[in-house]
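QUALITY CONTROL LOG
STEP: pairwise intake check
CHECKER ROLE: data steward
CRITERIA: each record must contain a sequence immediately followed by its structure tokens, with no blank fields

ENTRY 1 OF 2
RESULT FIELD BELOW
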Amino acid sequence: MDKQVLRIAWSVRTSAVKFYDDLYLGGKCYEVSKAFTNILHQEGLRACLVVGSWGTTSYEGEISHCWVELDSKIIDLTATQFGSGIPAVYIPGPAGKKVYIRMATGYAAVAHVKANWMTINTAQRDIERRIDRFQTRAYRDLMSLRLHPQRRKHAKASRLGTVLHEDRS
């Protein structure tokens, strides 16, 4: 995985933990993944928001989930919500992909989430506003790291021992 993408992923993940005040980001997969996708687009990278299921090989007993795909690789910034031992920035290898089942991508993914996960228009507007606020903060944090590289050392130290994990299986 490209170092630029990993830096962006860590920056967005760190911003999300601060913004939502939740180390595991439970229930925030759509918001974080949508903002991460938009930030990658702003950086000139062709990422795709994906909605599907996590943890099973069929739609029965599924856990609905969102993640980002870039260059045919899954980047999941909220997989920690599924249990301990999952890294904060998770990039599964070929064997790990079996737990990610795609249902919709891009605009179809957004439409699916709005139709199936958000039932009231007010809730949709509130969530979209929260995503905008989070995305603005995450992008500002990313720009701050670029302007002040010495902050990277502090950012690495504040990850509470979590490490990037790219499955090579």
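ENTRY 2 OF 2
RESULT FIELD BELOW
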Amino acid sequence: MCGINGIIRFNREVLKEEIDKMNKAIKHRGPDDEGVFISNSEGYCIGLGHVRLAILDLSEKGHQPMGYNIEEDKIIYRDDELDKADIIIVYNGEVYNYLELKKKFNLETETGTDTEIILKLYNKLGFECVKEFNGMWAFCIFDKIRGIIFCSRDRLGVKPFYYYWNGEEFIFSSELKGILAVKEINKKENINKEAVELYFALGFIPSPYSIYKNTFKLEARQNLIFDLNKKRIEMVSWFLWDNFTLKPKTTIKVSHDEKCPVCGMFVYKYPRWAAQIWLKNGKHFSFDGVKDLTKYIHSHPKLNIDKIVVTDYYKQYAIDGKKAFYVIGSDVYGPMGEEAIPFEDEDDAKAFMRDHRGKKIVSFVEIELDDK
């Protein structure tokens, strides 16, 4: 067990003392060693931290943050030399098949660590490197050349990854206490009421929610790609790279005064579940889930509908609701309980149904009010 920390800012510098505080807060995860990388540039400022429990390669060559200089094909494991690196990683976990990957891709290595394999496979394969990993992991890679932060969590979500994002500051850690060490969000006004409702309904707070506003858990099998130059974050599931693009997608826009006409809840509080009916006269209705949307349609059969828009669960952008695929009866719950989970691609829906114990996949017209 190790621990990872990081801060990315666009409005002020990141201080080494801040990363030190974060490392100290989760020191119990890695008592053997710790490291810090700081880079304050004109466009954005980054700090990365790591606390290590030494398992593979007990020497200093297993130190993190670890960097890779592509031109020199050299691994950098000393904090004061990380400025020379093109790619830098902080990583918690174990890739069990790292020796097989070393042989498969004919990788020359300097250390006995799986961390080095991750770095070099990222350089070779890009985001798709995660397809090759068999193991448990949570990591953050800073790609200096592309100006991208790439974060990933293993298929089952064994290794934790929390992050805070308010539009100007991105903070991540293996534990909430790492974020709390530098961000004073442990206040009543910052409690996420939606998460509290889910806790009392389910007995736990499911991903991606956390107890605090603007603070989330990276979901199992999910990857976070942060384009630092455009200040844009996108999510994608680990096996869906064929459909991935860094081009911006449209999300469903909901004003703060729009309530779901079925349950009366403010829809803007639940953006990942947002759905809309648009009428031919230009009027629209917003809903906090597909189930409430279908209830409204059934209770208003004479609606002159122009289009139906829903939010793709994995990609988190707006898709055509009439053409979407919906997973029924999964273990993922929406704001009002069991939901019909929408996907643009049928393969995504099949994978989600398999991994989340869904009962069936249906089209929009096949959704029944009593589907559970």
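INTAKE CHECK: passed for both entries
DESCRIPTIVE NOTE, ENTRY 2: The domain at 3-243 is CATH 3.60.20.10 (Glutamine Phosphoribosylpyrophosphate, subunit 1, domain 1).
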